[in-house]
Write a structure and sequence with these properties.
Elements lengths: L9 H5 L1 H30 L3 H37 L3 H37 L3 H14 L3 H16 L4 H22 L6 H26 L7 H10 L1 H23 L2 H37 L3 H28 L12 H33 L3 H25 L3 H26 L12
Helix pairs in contact: 2-7, 2-11, 3-4, 3-5, 3-6, 3-10, 3-11, 4-5, 4-6, 4-9, 5-8, 6-8, 7-8, 10-11, 10-14, 11-12, 11-13, 12-13, 13-15, 14-15
Family: Belongs to the multi antimicrobial extrusion (MATE) (TC 2.A.66.1) family.
Membrane topology: Multi-pass membrane protein
Keywords: Cell membrane, Membrane, Transmembrane, Transmembrane helix, Transport
């Protein structure tokens, strides 16, 4: 078992060096899964436009599991970090135990539901029957990895809370490297095609979840489920759940609208959206550091330390967004070709690219401040502004794009509104200091 945590040390917690020590391993962990998805997209893209469109549709449905995993990880990090900052490592790990029971239960339920509803969901989202049939087959197999995916998310949550970023780095990176090797082998030499892609996903998620479960067993012997604590976690996580549901409604609607513009449009949207997710999760590295350090600082009673972390990660998030924007600008003419040789998809990607580049610096600030506010437990505010951004910005814009045939430019204009509303409101909240509440826990 790990040694007890030492009391919170404010100067070290607020230092830029400490932020980097947590953010850099988190960057690799966050980037590993979307990087594998990019590899998977490139492998499938060379099977043709229909398999690529099928992965776009079914991947949007599977993002439900990824969303639940992110919700679980972020909620667990905030709760565990406050207890760790108050000097109670055992209580922080206990949050991980109960989150893992919840993860396993929800993961198995999702895997079972996918077997029954993959077909209707795929046909509702896809623009043509051939794409829908291929998407349903991929989804039924890939959903078997949901329990492992959610166990890994819960494990990431409590380990980040106790500021252990080394083991998640090994667990996630190892599993995804293995699957990135298996994906092209199963798709091409073995000859499983699109099914091989789904099997590789299941392997990565199951191996990673197994690693985190093993680490939890090594950490504590108190492994029995506690319905009371799980119920508290569910209640505390309700605002993150509603916030995540708003995001899911946005991205599922975007895929559905892009599908109505044709196979080339949804293929280009899939490439750009996966690159966006990759950029977002990579930029979230500083947000992960913020969750851990802000939660620990407030749990240890240091409001000044929490403010110092918030200021530094906001600057770091904006600068990181600029770096990503420069990279995407430099690769505008070549990046779509990494995923498919189809010129029609390249032409549609060119419509999206200016939006992609322009949004990244603002997104970097938004994601950093999301981490600050989640670490502080200020999730009710995040819920409200996300609902406002979705209902008043993203969703009206993309459905207007559909009805007036504005194409992918209209869809990505909706994303711009989503980011703009969140940028203005989160910066205002940060400057107001209303999020600063000290103590080992924070009521919702």
């Amino acid at each position: 078992m790990s040694p007890p945590a030492q009391p919170h040390a404010a100067p070290e917690q607020a230092s830029a060096r400490r932020i980097a020590q947590l953010a850099l391993p988190a960057l690799v962990v966050l980037a590993a899964e979307p990087l594998y998805v990019l590899v998977d997209t490139a492998v499938v893209g060379h099977l043709g436009p229909v398999p690529l469109a099928a992965v776009a549709v079914s991947g949007s449905v599977m993002s439900l599991a990824a969303w639940l995993g992110a919700l679980m990880a972020y909620g667990t990090t905030g709760r565990a970090a406050r207890r760790f900052g108050a000097g109670d490592r055992a209580a922080a790990v206990a949050e991980g135990v109960q989150a893992s029971w919840l993860a396993l239960t929800v993961g198995v339920l999702l895997a079972l539901l996918a077997q029954a509803f993959a077909g209707p969901l795929a046909h509702a989202l896809a623009g043509d029957p051939e794409t829908a049939e291929a998407a349903a087959g991929w989804l039924r197999v890939a959903a078997l990895g949901a329990p492992g995916l959610l166990l890994a998310a819960a494990g990431n949550g409590w380990m980040r809370g106790v500021q252990d970023t080394r083991r998640p780095l090994i667990f996630v990176l190892g599993a995804n490297v293995l699957s990135a090797i298996l994906c092209p082998l199963l798709v091409y030499p073995v000859g499983w095609g699109l099914t091989g892609s789904a099997v590789a996903n299941v392997i990565a998620q199951s191996v990673s979840g197994g690693f985190f479960l093993y680490a939890l067993v090594r950490e504590t012997r108190q492994l029995r489920p506690s319905p009371q604590i799980i119920g508290q976690q569910l209640r505390l996580g309700r605002d993150l759940l509603i916030r995540g549901a708003a995001f899911q409604a946005c991205f599922l609607s975007a895929t559905a609208v892009a599908s109505r513009f044709g196979v080339e449009s949804v293929g280009a949207h899939q490439i750009a959206l996966q690159l966006w997710f990759f950029s977002a999760l990579a930029l979230d590295a500083v947000a992960i550091a913020a969750q851990s350090l802000v939660g620990a600082a407030l749990g240890g009673g240091s409001a000044d330390d929490a403010k110092a972390v918030a200021r530094k990660v906001t600057i770091a998030g904006g600068l990181s967004g600029v770096v990503f924007a420069l990279f995407v600008t430099a690769g505008a003419g070549s990046i779509p070709g990494w995923f498919t040789p189809d010129q029609g998809i390249h032409d549609q990607a060119a419509v999206i690219w200016p939006w992609f580049i322009g949004l990244l610096p603002f997104a970097g600030v938004v994601y950093a401040l999301d981490g600050v506010l989640i670490g502080a437990g200020d999730v009710r505010f995040l819920r409200n502004i996300t609902l406002a951004a979705a209902l008043l910005g993203f969703l009206p814009a993309i459905w207007i794009a559909y009805f007036f045939d504005l194409g992918l430019g209209g869809v990505w204009a909706g994303l711009a509104l989503l980011i703009a509303i969140r940028f203005v409101t989160t910066v205002w909240r940060w400057r107001s200091d209303r999020w600063v509440v000290t103590g080992a826990s924070r009521s919702s």
